[in-house]
Amino acid sequence: MQILTVTELTTYLRELIDSDEIARDIWVEGEVSNFNRHSSGHCYFTLKEGDAQLGAACWRSFVARIGTMPANGAAILAHGRVAFYEGRGQLQLIVDDIRPAGIGLLQAQFERLKARLEAEGLFDQSRKRTLPALPRRIGVATSPTSAALQDILHILGRRYPLAEVIIAPCKVQGAGAADSVVEALYLLYEADVDVIIVARGGGSAEDLWTFNEESVARAVFASPVPLVSGVGHETDTTMIDYVADLRAPTPSAAAELVTPDRAELTEVLDYLRERLDLAIATRLTTTKNDVDVVRRRLELRSPMARIGRDRQFLDETLRRAEVRLSHRMSLEHARLDGMRARLTALSPHAILMRGYAVVRQLDGRVVTQPEQAASGEALIVTMRGGDLPVRVE
Amino acid sequence: MMTEVSAGARYEALYARIQEIVARLETGDLPLEESLALYEEGVAVASACQQLLDEAALRVQRLQGGLLIEE
Fold this sequence. Notes:
Chain A is of the alpha/beta class. In chain A, about 45% of the residues lie in helices and about 25% in strands. Chain A has helices at about 5-20, 20-25, 60-65, 105-120, 145-160, 175-190, 215-220, 240-245, 250-260, 260-300, 305-345, 350-355, and strands at about 25-35, 45-50, 50-60, 75-85, 90-100, 135-140, 165-170, 195-200, 225-230, 245-250, 360, 380-385, 385-390. In chain A, β4 (about 75-85) and β5 form a beta hairpin. Chain B is elongated and about 60 Å long.
């Protein structure tokens, strides 16, 4: 068994409490009593619930941020860390944020506000606007240091890097967060953006409570451009989800909803290029057909066609002339052959062969009358065997 | 105020132009020379669109004290 001094024990307990994960960051539900605002500006009170109670302290700087402090008897949800106060040997809750009541009360408030805003028409489907197909300037209201912002920027850069992003940094939880979000939204309304994302990563219902605040819901309603809410996880629903033009389940999903996908745009471009090719090919085919038609018509009317036709006529005429001529020549040949036969039959030679003789003068004239020949004239007698020169007595 | 034309605005203009070109070419009743000129332009515009998509880098600015600060 160890014996410790009081200091050693209280130091041990302080270190034990300080190192505890749960005690370091905790929401505590309870009723306020013994509320005391010290002249230093720090506030002290007791949180009670049933028979249990816990001392609480809220330092001046947090009091300023929280604004209105709860009155005695108020049911609150206090956020902070548990600390061991060695000077008095007591445990204390060091409070840095205060919300009204517990989740049940919060839920009741939420339902009341929701019914009221719905009755006012803040959720009307008829006023939901469609998002721009190709956003030029995308406004993002979120915490500048959050993972949600990094996710959003990554997705926007991957899907549609042609856009510009305007970040409106704001506080997304804790005291003053609602005012900060409202201010960021109104800055974006002046920033010439054409779509807005309001985002916050996942967290507890209390963490997301800012986006259930009436002031934030009304600021979202006032957006002059389509607004997408991307708060928490799929299962979380906040007031601005009802008011926004479109509700995204997460910040990343919001980034996807507001942008076209570069890959899809490329596909559309490819499709347009195919249509271009097809259109010009069709146009060229039409032109070629037109040219063919015109050429055929031209050819029918051209001098070449006339010459061709004339040449054909000439050829035909010539051919017919040749046929007629050769026919005529055959006839002539036949006639000549006939005459030659008749000539042969009439030939004096054939008569000589039969023993007759022909008497001719020296100049070749045939002597057919005796008085043709003078006395002593030389004549030639031709007979079968040859010529016989004679003299007239 | 910004004076230069953003990549997004240029893409939109080019995209609108190529849609117009395709629609006009598809009517098929343009003179051949005009069709060919439109086709050439369409191919060039499509390439320009593609280049913008391929080469763009997301521009990020932050609103701070009423001013836009480049990230």
